Amino acid sequence: MPIYLDHAATTPLRREALEAMLPYLTEHYGNPSSAHGVGRRARAGLDEAHERVGRAIGAEPREIVFTSGGSESNNLAVKGAAWAGKARGHRIVTTAVEHHSVGHTVRYLEKFGFEIVELPVDRYGRVDPEMVEAAITPKTILVSVILANNEVGTIQPIGEVAARVRRHKGVLLHVDAVQAAAHVTLDVADLDVDLLSLGAHKFEGPKGVGALFVRHGTNILAQQQGGAQERYRRAGTENVAGAIGMAAALDLAVAERPAVGGLIRGLREALASRLRGLDGIQETGHPTERLAGILSLVVAGVDGAGLVMALDLAGLACSTGSACATGSTEMSHVLTAMGYPGDEAKGALRLSLGRTTTVEEIEQAGRLIVGAVETQREAAARLGVGAGAAVSIRGSASVPGSASEARAG
Ligand SMILES: Cc1ncc(COP(=O)(O)O)c(C=O)c1O
Fold first, then answer.
1. Which residues, 6 or more positions from 112, have their beta carbon under 8 angstroms from its beta carbon?
2. Pairing verdict, β 294-299 and 281-283
3. pLDDT band at 247 (very low <50, low <70, confident <90, very high)
4. 99: CA distance to ligand 1 center in Å?
5. Alpha carbons 287 and 154: distance in angstroms, whole number
6. 318 is a catalytic site residue
7. Contact status, residue 81 vs residue 223, Cβ threshold 8 Å
8. 195 membership: H or E segment, kind and range
């Protein structure tokens, strides 16, 4: 089995979640909208999932909309709020370091006349709350800010952002908490947000299910029509087993968060200090306001994509997180926004730890990474090429929207 240090891309489904799901994939197979007993049993499971996911983030059951995952939650939040608010205004404020499911969604909305303000971030990937407020005009309907970044792990000052957004009546605040949920205490009342996105597979729940918190009284326009499910906010027969698996995984993640967080922080630090022994390594992201489990680096003189491939062959699964997806020449928009020039961003590496990561794996990963970096640098030196220029392994040029453009996490 390879060492898996790519938990920010996805996590393994935990056994307890699978066990909670199984009855809803077998005997309780009913459609929750059916009037008979078979349907009612599925409905009871779905109701329980709303209640448990709601409770885990301090929300009411009716404020939870189950979706197909983090991307759909972000799409529903941003498009739903934009179209519902169109009569009042057309301005949306966001940051330069959002996940593409927000970043590309606002670009899409731009084609329909919405005005998008993409705020810059500092060297650590943080947005300035004052700048957020300064960008709000009477035409602003939505502010969307990622809580914890998926590439570098930086946590945004959401409390301050929320306090400033709140001074402007009628402006909704959406937070993408997909990456944060496993590691950060989430309470929608404390956070003071209107919309918050979650995705189950980032905290050992199943893939293909997520949730959007929609504060009671918040108006969003459904993006899928054809059914009354999820209180008319998301048409389509519900993924009952997925919702139950998500609830089970989230409950456990919340209960174990303090202990697991401490463990992961220690392992991350052990790996970071091992790698600090290498020349030309910079840790990216905020030094303290960050997710415990993500160690993101830029490594001088190597190509991140080539390094990830070499590590895969050596038995370590990790990602560039993501300076250049394989086959793509596109640089990470996150590192670019943080001010890393292309030749530095090219050497990006993201190592993301999870609950099941062990000390032995971290020790072995340290050895493998040091070895692979040295090998790449020697190869580059032999070929007489500049830092990270040649030893990359590339496929064909990327086509926008092609599979090669898709990035994990
Ligand atoms: C911050 C963030 N938002 C959204 C997503 C999309 O989630 P999903 O993979 O569930 O569609 C991800 C995961 O890739 C993420 O890390």
1. none
2. antiparallel
3. very high
4. 7
5. 8
6. no
7. no
8. strand 195-199
Q: Would you place residue 330 in the very low, low, confident or very high pLDDT band (cuts 50, 70, 90)?
A: confident
Q: Above 80 in pLDDT, residue 70? A: yes
pLDDT of residue 408: 65
Mutate which of 178, 319, 320, 407 to test ligand 1's pocket (most atoms within 8 Å of Cβ)?
178
295 and 319 in contact (C-beta within 8 Å)? no
Which one-letter amino acid corresponds to residue 29? Y
Domains of the chain: 3-7+257-405 (3.90.1150.10), 15-252 (3.40.640.10)
* Ligand 1 atom closest to 199 (CA): 10
Give distance in angstroms: CA of 69 to centre of ligand 1.
Answer: 7
Judge whether residue 389 has pLDDT over 50: no
Predicted structure pTM score: 0.93
65 φ, ψ (degrees, to nearest 5): -115, 115
Q: What is the mean pLDDT of residues 326-345?
A: 85
Rounded to the nearest angstrom, the distance between the alpha carbon of 76 and the centre of ligand 1 is: 13
pLDDT of res. 386: 55
